[in-house]
Structures are given as structure tokens and as C-alpha cells.
Design a protein that fits this description.
By secondary structure, the chain is an alpha/beta fold. It is built from ten helices and six strands, in the order βαβαβαβαβαβααααα. 58% of the residues lie in helices and 14% in strands. A six-stranded parallel β-sheet has the order 2-1-3-4-5-6, with helices on both faces. Helix 1 links the parallel strand 1 and strand 2. Helix 2 runs parallel beside helix 3.
Length: 214
């Protein structure tokens, strides 16, 4: 089945190269091109593509914003993000916006067609460079959390456990024979060390790390 494809990138030379590559595929029909997110949204309405190859970093309206708008209008459309960035933040934001695939531009000549075929079949696709970056960053995050946990004092662990069990500051202070202000200092230190920002996040961390059985 031929896939109708809209190609969106603000660099005309890259679009031309990608178009030539895609035209050589018998099951891909490039039905339109756009150089920015706003034109992409307009062309989606006019052309009804099956797949949109969407540059992440465009002026005026970037790919993350455009992806969300495109999928509001056509939730069945598959979006393959195309980017110079393999950083997990960009990947996560595009996935959150609804993209089904993510390919870095340096690998587009070998990976873009694979991504289009994969998303057309209902699968999710990350090119190897992106997958390697996501795994590497996940490992670094895990090591960072392990190091932070190792840095917790015994008293901080006690406070964390009681916070995760649902006790409030005054109850924890009474249980540990501390001043309420001291408990608050421990809570702030826990958030700083673990890079967490709420009691709910502290609770999830404590459960995940086996610091409480609740």
C-alpha cells in the first residue's frame, strides 16, 4: 500500500535530497512539502497525508508544536520526527507530542525509509543513534540516583521513609524527636540531592528503591 507523505523541513536543499531519495521508493508518494510548521498544518488539511516527516527545529512554529496541532486534526496520521538533536529531552518532547518515530538527520539516508515503513505498520521507531543516546542518558540518570541515594544520611533515610508512609512534618518530628523546622530542612535536602520536587515524587522514589513497603 502506497503511503502518502508530507515532507516538512526549513532547509530546501535537505528537502530536495530527501524527496529524491523517497521518490525512488515505490510504496512512498511525496504529495507535498513545507518549510515551516504553519504551512505543514495547512497542507495536512489539504492533502490528507498518511505520514508526515517533520523537522523538529524550525522557526516560527517548531516541530513539537506542529506535531501536536497536526494530530489534533488527524489523529490517524503518523509523524516521523527529523532532527539534528539526539538528546533525550527533544526525543521525549516529540514523543509526548505524538510522534511515532524519531530519526537524526545525519542518519536520514539510511534510517528515514525504515522509520516510515515502521510507523506505517503501526510500530514505533527510533534510529540507532537516538536509541543509544537514550540508553546512555538513562544509565547516567540511574548512576546519578544511586550516587544520591548513597549520599543520604541515616536521618534523611528515616525522614524519607516516614514521608513515604504519609506522615506530615509534625508527626515525623514527634516520631524522631526532632523540631519541625529540622524535618523541613531534611525534606529540602532530600529533594535537592535526589533532584525531586514534591512529596509525591519522594514517595515514588522511596517505593521504587525499597525504602518503604507501602
Amino acid at each position: 500500500m502506497t503511503q502518502r507523505l508530507l515532507l516538512v523541513d526549513d532547509h530546501a536543499i535537505l528537502r530536495e535530497a530527501l524527496r529524491a531519495m523517497l521518490h525512488a521508493q515505490p510504496d512512498i508518494d511525496v504529495v507535498g512539502e513545507a518549510g515551516n510548521g504553519r504551512d505543514a498544518i495547512r497542507l495536512v488539511r489539504e492533502l490528507n497525508p498518511d505520514v508526515v516527516v517533520l523537522d523538529v527545529g524550525m522557526p516560527d512554529m517548531n516541530g513539537i508544536e506542529a506535531a501536536a496541532e497536526i494530530l489534533k486534526r488527524g489523529p490517524q496520521i503518523k509523524i516521523v520526527a527529523l532532527s539534528t538533536h539526539s538528546d533525550r529531552r527533544f526525543v521525549n518532547e516529540m514523543i509526548a507530542a505524538g510522534a511515532s518515530g524519531y530519526v537524526v538527520k545525519t542518519a536520514a539516508s539510511t534510517e528515514l525509509i525504515r522509520a516510515i515503513h515502521a510507523v506505517s505498520q503501526g510500530m514505533f521507531y527510533l534510529c540507532p543513534e537516538v536509541t543509544a543516546g537514550v540508553i546512555r542518558q538513562a544509565g547516567e540518570d540511574a548512576r546519578g540516583r544511586s550516587a544520591a541515594r548513597a549520599e543520604l544520611t541515616g536521618r534523611e533515610r528515616e525522614v524519607l521513609k516516614l514521608l513515604a508512609e504519609g506522615l506530615r512534618t509534625t508527626a515525623i518530628a514527634g516520631r524522631l524527636h526532632l523540631a519541625g523546622a529540622t524535618v523541613e530542612v531534611h525534606r529540602r535536602n532530600l529533594m535537592r540531592k535526589l533532584d525531586l520536587h514534591s512529596v509525591a515524587e519522594l514517595t515514588r522514589y522511596a517505593l521504587r528503591e525499597g525504602l518503604t513497603e507501602l
